[in-house]
Write a structure and sequence with these properties.
This protein is an alpha/beta fold and 439 residues long. Helices cover 40% and strands 13% of the residues. The chain contains 14 helices and 13 strands. The strands form 2 sheets. An 8-stranded mixed β-sheet has the order 3-2-1-4-5-6-7-8, sandwiched between helices. Strands 10-9-11-12-13 form a 5-stranded parallel β-sheet, covered by helices on one side. α1 runs parallel beside α7, α5 packs across α6 and α11 crosses α12. The mean pLDDT is 96. The structure holds nicotinamide-adenine-dinucleotide (NAD). Nicotinamide-adenine-dinucleotide (NAD) binds next to α5.
Length: 439
């Protein structure tokens, strides 16, 4: 792209006359809409899900941590337009892509959402537009795969339109780090692509420019692999220390007093959420093209995937000690969401626990104040509803399993009224009772 086109686009961004289109209004896209609306832009939100578009138009929300008041506030500015009409893409100066990047049934990258979106953009692509991919993916997706699809329009990346990659670092439910407080890595296909993308993100957040889209893609995967590997390490140590009669939580607390070179990670019933269990395998898949095996990623995946099985083993042992078999027993899972205080059940280990325990003949219920009933998922269709958490209902179960340590739970109350508690999160720390088994 020439100097003049670059400066002209940057000027439009600075003056807020550039229109921003955000494709995919989910956990990542919707908070991004909010940030750009607040920064004074006219923002069009695109989604193929008509239900979401309708709810947003009515000022309603479908994401717990983006309240309806925020949607109403955005609608009130008259600068936010939710739509499923993708022909409006041609009127945007900046287009950000926040569509899902899951794994398919063979645990390989499923880029259909990204590629479908790129094909749609290619249909409406006009000169000088900025296209940024935000979805997590392997290095090369932006400047290789997506670029080719976009260039089928006849326009050239870096020459006719700006192309960039900037990964999301959203941590849903984390009050300390809202979207506008997390620095954002940005990589451009060319130097001018980077300049324009940086100018856009600079209006809402601190940017971290890097030398290419591939570095930005790799940085995002590295961050998630780092978590996955360290969680696997602490999960493995938990299993060993359990056997040795050492409390892993006390070990972590002690080690965390080292003021340098240590960072605590915490064990649990398995990995959950939309990122950590999935993203590392994008790199594993891409590595094969380079005749390379990502052994750390595979090993971490193996250990983390085993954790729900380990917890089931601990439940079996705990019940066995009380002279009770698992078949025909009643078990209550506390927390269906994959982590505390959110309503997101994607990849939640609680789902795996329900599956495994049901397979063994247990009658399983769950309680989750944030997930009142289950919806059909890719893998599961439990058709369950959250049962009430009362002294009477707790007493009914042979075993209560703390799978997600929501802050709203009164753990003293739960311990008092349950017959047996298997705690996978150290939620009952400080409570002493022979009924508690840590797993
Ligand atoms: N959720 C997180 O905390 C998080 C954090 C960092 C990165 N990411 C990454 O961000 C990306 C999006 O994740 P998410 O959690 O927001 O997903 P999501 O499922 O919450 O939202 C994706 C949205 O895209 C829409 N969509 C799908 N195909 C579309 C298409 N062709 N055109 C328009 N809209 C389409 C869906 O209807 C949905 O509303 C993924 O790559 C994910 O790995 C997510």
């Amino acid at each position: 792209m020439g100097y003049n086109n670059t400066m002209e686009t940057i000027e439009k961004i600075r003056k807020r006359t550039a229109r921003v289109g955000i494709i995919g209004l989910g956990y990542v896209g919707l908070p991004l809409v909010r940030e750009f609306v607040r920064a004074g832009f006219r923002v069009t939100g695109f989604d193929i899900d008509l239900r979401k578009v309708k709810l947003l138009r009515e000022g309603k929300t479908y994401i717990k941590h983006i309240p309806a008041e925020t949607i109403a506030e955005m609608n009130g500015t008259k600068r936010f337009t939710p739509t499923a009409d993708f022909s409006k893409l041609r009127t945007m100066e900046c287009i950000l892509i926040c569509v899902p990047t899951p794994l398919n049934q063979y645990r390989e990258p499923d880029l259909t959402y990204v590629f479908d979106t790129a094909r749609t953009i290619a249909k409406y692509l006009v000169k000088n537009q900025l296209i940024v991919l935000e979805s997590t993916t392997y290095p090369g997706t932006t400047d290789e795969d997506m670029r080719k699809i976009l260039e089928a329009s006849g326009l050239r990346a870096g020459k006719d339109f700006f192309l960039a990659y900037s990964p999301e670092r959203e941590d849903p439910g984390n009050q300390d780090f809202a979207a506008d407080r997390i620095p954002k890595v940005v990589g451009g296909y060319t130097g001018n692509c980077l300049k324009v993308a940086e100018a856009l993100y600079d209006t809402v957040v601190t940017t971290v420019p890097v030398g290419s889209t591939r570095v930005a893609e790799a940085a995002k995967l590295f961050e998630n692999i780092f978590r996955s590997v360290n969680i696997a390490l602490v999960n493995e140590l938990k299993m060993l220390f359990d056997r040795m009669g050492i409390d892993v939580w006390e070990v972590i607390q002690a080690a965390s007093t080292k003021p340098f070179g240590f960072m605590p990670f915490y064990p649990g019933p398995g990995l959950g959420g939309h990122c950590i269990p999935i993203d590392p395998f994008y790199l594993t898949w891409k590595a094969r093209q380079y005749d390379f095996h990502t052994r750390f990623i595979e090993l971490a995946g193996e250990i983390n995937t085993f954790m729900p099985y380990y917890v089931v083993g601990r439940i079996l042992d705990a019940m066995n000690s009380g002279g009770k078999g698992i078949k025909g027993s009643t078990i209550l899972i506390l927390g269906l969401a994959y982590k505390k205080d959110v309503d997101d059940v994607r990849e939640s280990p609680s789902l795996k626990l329900i599956e495994l325990l049901t397979e063994k003949g247990a009658v399983v219920d769950y309680n989750d104040p944030h997930v009142l009933k289950t919806h059909r998922m890719r893998r599961y269709d439990f058709r369950m509803s959250s049962v009430p958490l009362t002294a009477r209902s707790l007493k009914k179960y042979d075993c209560v399993v703390i799978s997600t340590d929501h802050s709203s739970y009164d753990y003293g109350f739960i311990v008092r009224h349950s017959r047996l508690i298997v705690d996978t999160r150290n939620a009952t720390a400080g409570l002493k009772s022979p009924k508690i088994v840590r797993a």
